[in-house]
């Protein structure tokens, strides 16, 4: 029987993670059915060689080589393995990486951002380098070294920086002017609203005016800045993110369509149905 497979990651709970929110292990095993991991309280970084299908939010990717898979706990995902897989995985909570610079690395890194692919293909040299880091983590994890946690955090940082070096983002705001700064603040504020975890805590910011008031700027200035920096209107960003969250809730929860509608700030399910159909061409029930 296969042991330490990717499917086991889905079953991990934070209290089970050694050193207050961390675990590293080797993975292996044959092909298997889909594992719907949903959204959890921990990040995952997996080094894997396999042929598999990864669904991440509303994106789907086919993998047939060695790669890094970086999973944000706020975005639902699932994996279907088509062949034997091998590699390493580590899971950790945001609390484990506590510290201003490390927390910012997690929260602001394009590696874990919504809309970015979580998959980074590796060549043989890159695979060898990252494998060495995982082997170091495994050896430290199994000892009583006084500063184990600090060394493990450093290893995670090293993997993330190597991933950024391999696949740098060409679309990140550089904060060269006020427009890029306000756009970055808008994008961060929007993303902090997700995921929707409770029907009783519906989405609050749903219009450009809502965001402008929260950011203490005029709505015309916000719209102009976002369009200048991203090429898309503020309303389009908001619509795309709400629909992406709707898709995740439809796919990964058993909430009724009415409950999903209310959680996303729609007063009536009919409004949500019309909104979803206008953007996707499908009613929510058909998409589910």
TrEMBL record:
Keyword Transcription carried by entry: yes
Matching InterPro entries: Homeodomain-like_sf, HTH_AraC, Tscrpt_reg_AraC-type_HTH
Chain ranges of the HTH araC/xylS-type domain: 184-288
Pfam family, one: HTH_18
Signal peptide feature range: none
Keywords: DNA-binding, Transcription, Transcription regulation
Protein name: AraC-like DNA-binding protein
Organism encoding this protein: Mucilaginibacter lappiensis
């Amino acid at each position: 029987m296969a042991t330490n497979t990717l499917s086991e990651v889905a079953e991990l709970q934070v209290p089970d993670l050694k050193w207050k929110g961390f675990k590293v292990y080797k993975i292996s095993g044959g092909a298997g059915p889909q594992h719907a991991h949903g959204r959890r309280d921990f990040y995952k970084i997996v080094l894997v060689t396999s042929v598999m299908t990864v669904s991440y939010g509303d994106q789907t990717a086919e993998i047939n080589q060695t790669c890094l898979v970086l999973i944000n706990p706020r975005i639902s995902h699932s994996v279907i393995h088509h062949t034997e897989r091998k590699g390493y995985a580590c899971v950790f909570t945001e609390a484990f990486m506590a510290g201003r610079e490390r927390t910012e690395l997690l929260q602001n890194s394009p590696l874990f951002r919504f809309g970015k692919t979580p998959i980074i293909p590796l060549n043989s040299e890159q695979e060898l380098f990252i494998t060495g880091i995982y082997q170091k983590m495994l050896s430290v994890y199994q000892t009583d070294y006084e500063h184990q946690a600090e060394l493990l955090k450093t290893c995670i940082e090293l993997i993330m920086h190597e991933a950024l070096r391999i696949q740098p983002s060409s679309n990140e705001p550089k904060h060269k002017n006020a427009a890029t700064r306000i756009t970055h603040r808008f994008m961060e504020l929007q993303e902090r609203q997700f995921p929707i975890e409770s029907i009783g805590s519906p989405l609050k910011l749903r219009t450009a005016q809502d965001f402008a008031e929260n950011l203490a700027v005029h709505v015309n200035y916000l719209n102009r800045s976002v369009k200048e920096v991203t090429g898309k209107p503020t309303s389009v960003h908001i619509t795309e993110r709400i629909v992406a969250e709707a898709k995740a809730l439809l796919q990964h929860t058993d909430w009724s369509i009415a409950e999903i509608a209310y959680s996303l700030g729609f007063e009536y399910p009919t409004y949500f149905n019309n909104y979803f159909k206008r953007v996707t061409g499908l009613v929510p029930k058909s998409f589910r």
